[in-house]
Amino acid sequence: MTTSTQLIRARRFLPLFVTQLLGAFNDNLFKNAMVFFVVYSVYNSETAEMWFSAVASGVFVTPFFLLSALAGQLADMRDKARIIRIVKACEIGIMAVGGAGLLLAWQGVAIGSLSIPLMLLALFAMGVHSTFFGPIKYAILPQHLHENEVLAGTGLVEAGTYMAVLAGTIVAGWIGVHWAALGVIIVALIGFVTARFVPSAPAQGKVEPIDFNVFRSSYKLISHTVHDRRVFLAIVAISIFWAICTILFVQFTPLAKNVLSASKEVASLFLVIFSVGVAIGSVSINALLKGTVSARYSPISVIAMGAFLIAFEAICSDWRASSTMMDVPTFIAHPLAPMLLLTLLGIAVSGGMFVVPLYAFLTTFVEKSQTARTIAANNIVNSGAMVVGALFAGLLSLIGLAVVKQLLVVAGCCLLPAWFGYVLLRAERAAAPA
């Protein structure tokens, strides 16, 4: 029996795995139901659609930038399982507000003045929810798992997250917003129940006072975290990677609508394939590394991601769109569709292979009592990079660069995480025992 199979059946891992999966599903069901509705039913301008998609991404990640330091302190200084249960209880109320916004949008009631603000408010609150849950889902692993299980557990959590993204995106693309409104509330209730089965994970080491000044604590958190060169380089590489992914996520729906003349179900299919690919990459890199935490394959993986992006752009540029919005069967029948979807899958698989080992660096090379705060520091830098990525995507549209040509800019950006991955690999080898 493999390590991953053993973990998925263990009570010390399964409730956490299911709880975080449900949370990721709800995030994506709600966010994508909102974005699909606004892009396909409210706006009729590529620039406006890109900006709304960018705003939605920015609203969701802003709490990570503001509150991650506080979240990391709480996770290290309090019982992680108890925090999970509190966070999941709050999710029920958040989704009630978000569901109300979706229902109002479905009815066409005050879309600009009430329903969209309600949905963005709920999206921001879900960002807060994920900010406090995020450090825990990784930091709790070294506390509940054996040392040789941490990489496998990290891979499963990452793969589970993206499978949940997959499911949430599929459902958001294929159901009406009124059903999405009901669905997000039901999933929040189920997540609250599963959270009650997560085993206790009390604070380890000395319990220190919590600094509620988020700006001071954020600065201290980052400065204290980067003393290990490997951890610092991993955080920088992960952050650049997520900035690139944010640009792609902002682009996918407007690209599907305006370049490929494809329906929201096809836009959902794009996000689904991306999620499947990252999940495949997350699991396959564990097999390649055989449980060893290493950046050995990171530089070549992200370079491959850039190459697939160039191929994806070339296919999009040669695409001959129909005069009407294509549904999924019509889209699949297009002669260029198989190659387009394969290159998209290649982008995602190589991305997953790049990022998963780097997350393992954050929980392996620090003291167990510091793991949640290390993840929180990573989240602060990641979220700042993602906000920059969302704004960058919007600015590219403002200066008139067509969405399909923006893919080439993203491909060029892959050289940055490749360089940091290479430097990290050198630092890893330098730190290895002779």
Automatic annotation (TrEMBL):
Compartments it resides in: Cell membrane
Top-level taxon of origin: Bacteria
Predominant place of localization: membrane
SUPFAM superfamilies given in the database record: MFS general substrate transporter
GO molecular function, one term: transmembrane transporter activity
Pfam family for this entry, one: MFS_1
Keyword Metal-binding (UniProt): no
GO cellular component entries: plasma membrane
Membrane topology designation: Multi-pass membrane protein
Keyword annotations from UniProtKB, A to Z: Cell membrane, Membrane, Transmembrane, Transmembrane helix, Transport
Name of the molecule in the record: MFS family permease
Classification lineage: Bacteria, Pseudomonadati, Pseudomonadota, Alphaproteobacteria, Sphingomonadales
